[in-house]
Amino acid sequence: MDPDSYRHRGQRRALAAELRHKGIRDEQVLTALMAVPRHQFFDPAFQAHAYQDKAFPIGEGQTISQPYTVAYQTELLRVRPTDRVLEIGTGSGYQCCVLLQLTSQVFSIEYNQVLFERTRRRLATMHQPAHLFCGDGSLGLPAHAPFDKILVTAGSPTIPRPLLRQLRVGGALVIPVGDAQSQRMLRVVRESEEEFVREEFETFRFVPLLGRAGWEG
Question: What amino acid positions are annotated as catalytic residues?
């Protein structure tokens, strides 16, 4: 794994400045992104792309998310140090590592077995203490619920009801919802056992959320 050099840290500072210019305002989120060596999620031949603000293929039909998208979703989530966070769609593990800068209690589930094994090894090498699982993320992790925050990193046709049930009262779910071409970013806050408040934000394009409560895989 390529060490984290002074040059890499400078590239992350420049990336954070770019994201700030694009509208990211939460300095804790920007600090979290500056702390995570994104180049370590890339094969050596592609590391020149690591600190560009774009998504990049990681195999298995998946991508490492664009830094702006990671920052945008994380900012909406409003993570506190005491929060238990569930991430749906571990992917490369990059978003997971950003969340770990904000709270030590991160649970992440990945649908694809190949990606899960690859990312589990990578995060172990990086000494990132996430709780990683392989399975149907659209159903959440009921055995470990409730969660203060839930972040979905894939586009869903609807808001999965199992995820709403696993939110603590006062907790928030951030999820892109729409069709295969574009999704609207939503934040859903659980006000009480039966009451949820929904907010709509910008439009994005994510890979599909596979599973019984998403797009059937």
Answer: 65
Q: How distant, in Å, are the alpha carbons of 33, 50, 61, 174 from that of 148?
A: 21, 31, 30, 12
> In Å, what is the CA distance from 116 to each residue of 90, 131, 155?
7, 12, 19
CA distance 106 to 202: 25
Give the C-alpha separation, 186 to 203, whole Å.
Answer: 9
Q: How big is the chain by its Cα radius of gyration, in Å? A: 16
Amino acid at site 99 = L
Q: Which of 120, 115, 116, 126 is nearest to 36 (CA)?
A: 126
Closest among 176, 179, 180 to 204, alpha carbons compared: 176
CA 10/CA 109 separation, integer angstroms: 32
Q: Report the greatest alpha carbon distance in the chain.
A: 50
Instruction: Output the CA–CA distances (angstroms, integers) from residue 169 to 79, 190, 195, 214, in the order listed.
Output: 15, 5, 9, 23
pLDDT (tens digit, 9 = 90+) per residue, 160-207?
999 999 999 999 999 999 998 999 999 999 999 999 999 999 999 999
Q: Does residue 159 contact residue 186 with C-beta atoms inside 8 Å?
A: yes
Nearest to 212 by CA among 139, 109, 157: 139
- Entry field: residues in the chain: 217
Contact 88, 138 (CB under 8 A): yes
pTM of the model: 0.95
Closest by CA position to 186, among listed 194, 197, 177, 195: 177
For residue 37, what are the CA distances in angstroms to 7, 82, 123?
11, 24, 12
